[in-house]
Amino acid sequence: MSQTKSIRVQRYLPEQEPEPFWQNYEVPFDESTSILDALNYIKDELDNTLSYRWSCRMAICGSCGVMVNGIPKLGCKTFLREYGTRVDISALAHFPVERDLVVDMDIFMEHLEAVKPYIIDKSKGRPTGESDTYRQTPAQMARYHQFSNCINCGLCYAACPQFGLNNQFLGPAAITLAQRYNLDNRDKGKRERMAALSEHDGVWSCTFVGFCSTVCPKHVDPAAAVNQGKIEAAKYTLINLLNG
Amino acid sequence: MMKHHIAKDEPLWWALFSAGGICFAMLVPAAILVFGLLMPMGIIPASAFDYESLRGLGLGWPGLIFAGGVIALPAFHALHRIRHSCADLMLGKESVNKVWAYGLASLMSLMAVGVVLVNLF
Amino acid sequence: MQKPASYRPSMSRRWWLQHQHFVLYMLREATVVPLVFFAGCMIAGLWALNSGAEAWVSWQAFMANPLVILINLLTLAASLFHAATFFPLMPRVMPIRIGAKTLPVNAIVGGMWAVVAIIAIALVAYFIWRA
């Protein structure tokens, strides 16, 4: 590791400075050094006051999301070798910043909760556990499988200007998970989810910018899910109007 | 239990926007090619556009399809995007923008479809 | 539980200039500006047909104004750019499934471009035949 790279990290230390500021670090790197490795190096060797979230190092826990040169990335899945001389790391956009690279994701959690992202089945014939389980064919699973790969990392929210402009917008991941369960043949809870999706701040705030799908580290295509949700919300609203 | 306020009008605007988007992509290029470029540039001879025969066409049933597919639906497509662009650029108030945007689209549709209908019936 | 102090970044009106993806998005949205002009031209054309031969001739003269032709050239480019952004979204929003397989995106997009070409060729051919 003879080469080093200069990395700028946006710091926010409310007890010292009321505004965020940039700080430079010189980090050794090779072909395999990820952004997360660089942050760990800074924390261990250069500056133990740096705060950031991480856990699995393998793009499944979804906790190391940061902006790299203004684009949402998972720190563990993004490598220093991909960048030239400019590497600016800052906290995920559109969320309140608590400290350095740590954001407050409560609003995202609220939006997730609002769409009930779990199987709802109150029918009499539902499986009761033990040896009694649901049956699902590969064709039935194919309908929702792509949307079930979401790891709740929040990159799509940081990529979405509509969420940036109005944080009451349910947002890409929440609507995608609603669509994921709506498409699941084991689920009977579509009606309960559609009320939230059919609000102004539900699917209708989306203008198909599509950047959410570009940045998604799991190739979920939230933009497609949100716009499938518009068709469903239109149907739901029409049925509601007809029923008075 | 949270009270949900369903946006009753949005499905209508979105349906018109989507239908207009298909028309903008599939019908409008042909219309621009003929009436915006080939006719005025004289590439298609003027005899193809003589008043007497085109009047029957333009203010008849083909004209109704033209008014709907090349003017009315694309107008709703356009004004829906303009309404959302105003929000993107933080211009005006959403409730007011909706009124003038869809109002203008309705007016354009009425002017196009209306003049054909008056001649048809 | 009380939340710790936090910094809330605000969005600037020029947010869309910060990334190429957003610039292309705004360009896509802007395709409707020349479209509104063209729709206005077509409304005027229908009204000219309704008014009489004289109005029709002066409408044709208006359409032949070099500036109007230039704007309509831009409108054609805008409509094709719109189509190029719109078609790939259709199979994503309305996937056509046969069993567990989804119809390939390229086939659907190619089919839609074929429809654009067929309509354009048919309309041009019809007016050439009239002449």
From TrEMBL, chain A:
Pathway: Carbohydrate metabolism; tricarboxylic acid cycle; fumarate from succinate (bacterial route): step 1/1
Residue ranges constituting the 4Fe-4S ferredoxin-type domain according to the UniProt record: 141-170
Enzyme class at the top of the EC tree: oxidoreductase
Coiled coil: none
GO molecular function list: 2 iron, 2 sulfur cluster binding; 3 iron, 4 sulfur cluster binding; 4 iron, 4 sulfur cluster binding; electron transfer activity; metal ion binding; succinate dehydrogenase (quinone) activity
GO cellular component, as recorded: plasma membrane
2Fe-2S ferredoxin-type domain residues: 7-93
One GO-annotated biological process of the protein: respiratory electron transport chain
Reaction it catalyzes: a quinone + succinate = fumarate + a quinol; a menaquinone + succinate = a menaquinol + fumarate
Record-linked InterPro entries: 2Fe-2S_ferredoxin-like_sf (IPR036010), 2Fe-2S_ferredoxin-type (IPR001041), 2Fe2S_fd_BS (IPR006058), 4Fe4S_Fe-S-bd (IPR017896), 4Fe4S_Fe_S_CS (IPR017900), Beta-grasp_dom_sf (IPR012675), Helical_ferredxn (IPR009051), SDH/FRD_Iron-Sulfur (IPR050573)
Record's cofactor remark: Binds 1 [2Fe-2S] cluster. Binds 1 [3Fe-4S] cluster.
Subcellular location: Cell inner membrane
Enzyme Commission no: 1.3.5.1
Record's bilayer topology term: Peripheral membrane protein
NCBIfam families named in the record: dhsB (TIGR00384), PRK05950.1 (NF004616), PRK12385.1 (NF009051)
Name the UniProt record assigns to this protein: Fumarate reductase iron-sulfur subunit
TrEMBL record, chain C:
Protein name, per record: Fumarate reductase subunit C
Pfam families hit by this protein: Fumarate_red_C (PF02300)
InterPro entries reported for this sequence: Fumarate_red_C, SQR/QFR_C/D
UniProt GO cellular component terms: membrane
Coiled-coil annotated residue ranges, if any: none
The species this protein was found in: Terasakiispira papahanaumokuakeensis
Superkingdom, natural source: Bacteria
Keywords attached to this entry: Cell membrane, Membrane, Transmembrane, Transmembrane helix
Transmembrane spans: 21-49, 69-91, 103-129
Taxonomic placement: Bacteria, Pseudomonadati, Pseudomonadota, Gammaproteobacteria, Oceanospirillales
